[in-house]
Amino acid sequence: MASYSLILITGRSTKQGVGISSGKDQPEYQEATRLLEMSRADLMRLGLQPGDTVRIRSPFGETTVRCSEADLPEGLAFLAYGPAASQLIGGETWATGMPDTKGFEIEVEKVT
Amino acid sequence: MQIDHVVCAFCGCVCDDLSVTVEENHVLEVKNACILGRAWMIGHAGQREESVARIDGQPATLEEAVEEAVRILTSARYPLIYGLSSTTCEAQRQAVALAETLGACIDCCTSVCHGPTGLAVQSVGEPTCTLGEVKNRADLVIYWGSNPAESHPRHFVRYAVTPKGLFRPGGRKERTVVVVDVRPTPSVRAADLFLRVRPGKDFECLWALRALVAGRPVDEAAVAQTGLTLAQLRDLAERMKSCQFGVLFAGLGLTQSRGKQMNLAAVFLLVRDLNAYTKFAAIPMRGHGNVTGIDNVMAWQTGYPFGVNFSRGYPRYNPGEYTAVDILSRGEADATLVIAADPAANLPRPAVEHLRRIPTIVLDVQPSETTRLARVSITTAPVGIAVEGTVYRMDNVPLRLRKVLDSPFPSDEEVLRRILQRVKEIKKC
């Protein structure tokens, strides 16, 4: 199965923020933090339909999430902060204490 | 019973105008809160955890949990205390005292949100103001790398975009709102102007703006690499110079991407430059309810805002060495005490893997990824709902939390005080 490179931005989403309070063991939080958003063009390039399961790989780890379509520039993907996103982030902080959390390259492929 | 002027402790907006209806120790209704504040109030008011503490997943008494926590911390060679962004300043003080007594490292969530902002402040200073000044004076509002529509939903209506202020009686009509981001976030809907910058090119944009504000020549081809045109940046520079009172809200899009502290230094230097022409300020968009408070408590007690090591008996500060991601990813800490945070869900994979290998103690209001891996977890009462105390808004204004419910669980402050007392007894200090 072919994989494609995207630039990943991790961040806060409303559903993830609500899930923090309503319960991290609840399905709402789990779904909100396991949803990779990308443009329609990238979905088509990968042969994906919204709701499909995709494997994401970074140089530091991998995780499996569902995908969805969002108003994003081609080549850019978004994943809310949470256990899935943290699997993709490395421990290097370049002497700042802050890891590279936004704007790093990932490989995405459809899980069949 | 309706309780007014309740302070929300979820995000850095710390809205202090909530009205909460309480009957028989249950929250029935929350008025004036955003979707995040309502979830905070209702979700945490109905705590589901039945046991006050667990040791290796088994129910335990508070006394047993405190004793096990003390045993772990006093037998560790390099303990780490981490978190503290969603608890009161009173609890934070106890945590710093505990770190000093143990000779531990203490770090807070700041290091993985606006830690780079702190580094920039230490390098070039922070030309800033309060949110009250923004409300009353600002006619140009710029959100850069920030998405308040999802992270701080009432920021627009209470402080920066729509409210009518003393010198802005027309409210929204008298303000120009600009969003600069790598993607069209929901916040763009509130903006007059959206500038989409390429990922990792914020510093170049900010530095080009400095040159344009100073009237220096800027290479058009170099600017094009940022995803913006020279005309767009020139227009923004002119808006910045010609406004009466401008404010730039800096978000995690600047601190967590390439450039980090240099991005924020560029923001502060740009704002400093602009004050030769008009009044301009910058405010970091702080995330958690009292993450600004832990910076203040750490700074007044140790001299440093985060990433502090007490192993020599006095505080030493070195981001990259004494910060949580580094200590854990390098496998240095041999025990961790987490307060009001969920590092297992948010820190990078190498750090989480090390957390799983060492004994971890967690104080939190509800189950989380971190409580699931913890040796000792203690359920504490939610601040601003069942616990009074002080929190700092994102503009460093302290506010007093109100208590609206009783909780069967102790406060973070009480648990930390107990742990500290027992550690002092064991260490005979």
Short description:
Chain A has 112 residues and is an alpha/beta fold.
How does this model look, in words?
The complex is a heterodimer of chains A (about 110) and B (about 425). With about 110 residues, chain A is an alpha/beta fold. Chain A has a single domain (about 5-110), classed as Barwin-like endoglucanases (Beta Barrel), CATH 2.40.40.20. Chain A has four helices and six strands, in the order βααβαβββαβ. A six-stranded mixed β-barrel of chain A has the order 1-5-2-4-3-6. The model of chain B has no long low-confidence stretch (mean pLDDT about 95). Chain B has two domains: about 50-115 and about 290-385 and about 405-425, Rossmann fold (3-Layer(aba) Sandwich), CATH 3.40.50; about 115-285, Dimethylsulfoxide Reductase, domain 2 (3-Layer(aba) Sandwich). In chain B, the strands form four sheets. A nine-stranded mixed beta sheet of chain B has the order 5-4-17-16-15-6-7-13-14. Chain B has a five-stranded parallel beta sheet with strand order 10-9-8-11-12. Chain B has helices at about 35-45, 60-75, 90-100, 115-125, 130-135, 150, 155-160, 200-215, 220-225, 230-240, 250-255, 260-275, 290-300, 325-330, 345, 350-355, 370-375, 410-425, and strands spanning about 1-5, 20-25, 25-30, 55, 60, 80-85, 105-110, 140-145, 175-180, 195, 245-250, 280-285, 310, 315, 335-340, 360-365, 375-380, 390, 400. In chain B, α17 links the parallel β16 and β17. Chain B contains 18 helices and 19 strands. With about 425 residues, chain B is of the alpha/beta class. Chain B is globular and about 65 Å long. At the A-B interface, β1 and α1 of A face α1, α4, α6, α11 and α14 of B.
